[in-house]
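Checked the freezer inventory, then went back to the computational side. Two predictions to log before the end of the day. The first one is the construct we discussed on Monday; recording sequence and tokens without edits.
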Amino acid sequence: MKRIYLAGPDVFREDSITWGKYLQTVCEEHGLTGLYPLDNDIAPRHNPQETAHAIAQANMQMIRQADGVVANLEPFRGIEPDSGTVFEVGVAIALGKPVWVYFPHTGDLLQQVPDIDAGRCAQGWLVEDFGLPRNLMLACQWHGYSPTVEEAIAEMAQLLG
């Protein structure tokens, strides 16, 4: 059975364990094995930094073992996706693994960023205008986009055949 890494800020949900089981069930319905980061059983280390390092290494190993990645790129703590998830997408792309993403579509970046004046956000940064729903470095690399996780998993199953 093909394995997919389930990337996203979902591990921060209040119901993260239950949600992870749900995602894995959806994967199984499509003939896939879902690798969910919280499946890693990481014992606390001597200090928080060592624990964080162990978590990061375990997640990297899951990505290496996966045949593809399904990533939640919904806005997280603002208008941008979770930076850890974006990193995981980059790792998967660098390893040559297909990535399918999902998030509720809310238009291109210009439509998503509030208080734009002459193409610049309130902080004065230029907002790229390529008609893409995420930064071009993400949107030009993923294999596809779906508005829901269920659709994304189904598409990844088709892609991995």
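The second is the one RB wanted added to the comparison set:
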Amino acid sequence: MRTRTDGHCVLGEPAHSVTSVIFGVDAIVDAAQASAAAWKTVLDPFLRTHAAVHETEFTPFDVRADYLRFLQGRPRLEGLRDLLAARDIVLSYDDLRGLAMSQEEFFLGEVRRHGLMPFASAIAVLRRLHRGGVRTAAVSVRPEGAEILRRAGVTDLFDVVMDGLDSPGTTLPEHPNAQLYLQAARRLGVSPGQAAVIETSAAGVAAAREAGVGAVVGVDPTGAITPLREHGASPVVTDLAELRFRSARAA
């Protein structure tokens, strides 16, 4: 990978051609707002009740600060556990799972009523990749990953789609690890080194690096690029419009 003088990053060089690109679903579809709103719907009543029972101050869930710190790009139960622990609340696994399942129901209800919008820059990149002969996959460990893409109207832009519902019989993990990207590369018919990964979470970036993919691009629209860089993303961009791809044909 190199950086051009116009500030854009070029992915794929003659010495190391990228023949496939694996996208995390959150790099394609803007689901954060709906997901954070669903968490607030579930957590505020729980936190209010907990505060009343324990005679403590009720502090509502912050859809920006709490979501970005604890939940965005993290395994759902792990993020929820850490969010509650920061408020000195400890729940059993079953109680955590119950809250998480309620959030998923609210989130999917919102998605099914109103749909989701894909990032325009992601769509432009996907179309450019296909014109260049680069195969693409979309991956998510969330069980609703494929439905998110379908509701956003972008499923046909991918050669392979994998989500949490693929888990039985495929060893797809419950949270991002190397196996997620190895499975995607296998389904695309390429070696990991021939694939680039585009991810929004530090966990996803670290897992892609562990899988030995050819390149890992981090995307963080908030501009908080340090965590992605620290876990191995290079480059980290705020928008996919900053990327330019050199396909295998160009090589």
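For RB: The beta strands are 2-3, 9-11, 20-24, 135-139, 160-162, 195-199, 215-219, 236-237, 243-245. Residues 7 and 242 are 8 Å apart (CA to CA). Let me know if you want it refolded.
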